[in-house]
Design a protein that fits this description.
disordered C terminus; single chain; 10-stranded mixed sheet; alpha/beta; 24% strand; 254 residues; 2 domains; 9 helices; D-Maltodextrin-Binding Protein, domain 2; elongated
């Protein structure tokens, strides 16, 4: 265990979909590291990158995809190799009242259905569009399925939590979100449609210590908690899948 003299603040920039799980892990980290306060900034991965480029203080960066971690590495925002610590799947969600009477995934392409997705720059938005393209090849789906769904798009959100909120509030008939976003509180207000494995995507979550970390040793200790059996149990409890095997990306250029 790291011995902290005085007090320290650990700034963790993490994808919005990690909010619940990382908040739990942050409390555990503070309990086991007296003197350390964990401060979280949850947002779309692309927003977090922009903030770091503008000089925001971050010690740890956890992205919802490899693309933005690679971007961070290429722009010298992370100082050490990143590791994939969790995975996730996409699901379709509709309001519990289901006003559009959606009964199968094919119904998202029906004219008049209001669909909400995360914006294309957001990892959840990228994964959602990949799923919709994949479903073109599924039995019973039209070859232009994705285009028909895009024609029903009424909103593009800055992060996946925005998609969930729109569907919960009934401002959209359907949306695509991570399976981990279907928390106990959310599940009371929505219905979930699973996406078959051949057409779904497996989202990868990498994490790394940033170049600007005030105390890299404390930052590394947080990564160790996330990857530990205890950390993995917390992530599983919040709907995440374990990383199939340790994956390291090269370190940023010195």
């Amino acid at each position: 265990m790291i011995r902290v003299i005085g007090s320290a603040v650990l700034h963790v920039f993490a994808a919005a979909s990690l909010s619940e799980a990382f908040t739990t892990l942050g409390a555990e980290f503070e309990r086991t590291h007296p003197g350390v306060s964990v401060r979280f900034n949850f947002a779309g991965s692309q927003q977090l990158i922009f903030q770091m480029q503008q000089g925001a203080s971050a010690d740890v960066f956890a992205s919802a995809d490899q693309r933005w971690m690679e971007y961070a590495r290429g722009h010298d925002l992370v100082a050490e190799p990143s590791r994939v610590f969790a995975r996730n799947r996409m699901v379709v969600i509709v309001p519990r009242t289901n006003p559009a009477r959606i009964e199968r995934l094919e119904d998202l392409a029906r004219p008049g259905v209001k669909v909400v997705l995360a914006a294309g720059a957001v990892p959840a938005g990228t994964y959602s569009r990949e799923v919709l393209r994949n479903l073109r090849a599924a039995p019973g789906f039209p070859p232009e399925y994705d285009k028909r769904v895009f024609a029903n798009l009424v909103s593009e959100e800055d992060n996946v939590k925005g998609v969930v909120a729109k569907v919960q509030l009934g401002e959209a008939d359907a949306g695509l979100a991570y399976r981990s976003d279907v928390t106990a509180a959310v599940a009371r207000n929505i219905r979930v449609f699973e996406i078959a494995d051949p057409y779904n995507v497996l989202a990868s979550y990498p994490i790394a210590v940033t170049r600007s970390a005030t105390d890299p040793e404390i930052a590394r200790a947080f990564l160790e908690l996330v990857e530990s059996p205890k950390g993995q149990r917390v992530l599983a409890q919040h709907g995440f899948l374990a990383a199939e095997r340790p994956v390291e990306l090269p370190a940023a250029r010195p």
